[in-house]
Every structure is written in structure tokens, then in C-alpha cells.
Amino acid sequence: MLTSDSSESSLIKFTVVSEPSPDEQNLDCEDVGYGTIDLREILEYNQDKIQEDILIYDARETSTVIGSLNVSIKALDALFTSTNFFEF
């Protein structure tokens, strides 16, 4: 994941969905937008992402920002341990 050359392999992707109303339960959920956090940034800055706003991009028009999502990712210790493990 973090040892890959692909920048997308270190991304956590968040999907914002719209659920059907209770009287329309026969319909499927619909993807509204997407946002990401890069785990490599957590290692690079040696800091978890706490209460960070990420941009949410439209699911249909990926260059359009439609909002933001406040997220927390506590992964620094696990990432540090896993990267040290793979160095041996």
C-alpha cells in the first residue's frame, strides 16, 4: 500500500451517498460525491489527521467541488509500525 509506486494506493476514499426516502425504499442509494485523504501525508508530517476538512467532488463532474467533509484519521502509529516492518 505505502510501498507501491502508485499514488492512489495510499488514498482513503470517502463516498457521500444519498439514501432514498423511507417511502421510496425500492430505490438504490446514489453516489453524490467523493473525497480522499492520503496516508503518505500522515507519515510525511508525522501527524494524524484530526478534524480535517476534505473537499468533496461531484460524483458525475469530478472537477466540481460540491462541499466538504470533516474527518479524523488516527493511523500514525499503525503506519509507522508497518513501514518499519517492511524495511527489515
UniProtKB/TrEMBL annotation:
A cellular component term from Gene Ontology for this protein is: ciliary transition zone
Q: Which domain of life is it from?
A: Eukaryota
BP GO annotations: non-motile cilium assembly
Q: Which InterPro entries match?
A: C2_domain_sf, RPGRIP1_C, RPGRIP1_fam
Q: Where is the RPGRIP1 C-terminal domain?
A: 1-79
Q: Name one Pfam family in it.
A: RPGR1_C
What PANTHER family does the record point to? PROTEIN FANTOM-RELATED, RETINITIS PIGMENTOSA GTPASE REGULATOR-INTERACTING PROTEIN
Question: What is the protein's name according to its record?
Answer: Protein fantom
Q: Which species is listed as the source?
A: Caerostris extrusa
Give the taxonomic lineage as stored in the record. Answer: Eukaryota, Metazoa, Ecdysozoa, Arthropoda, Chelicerata
Identify the coding gene. Answer: Rpgrip1l
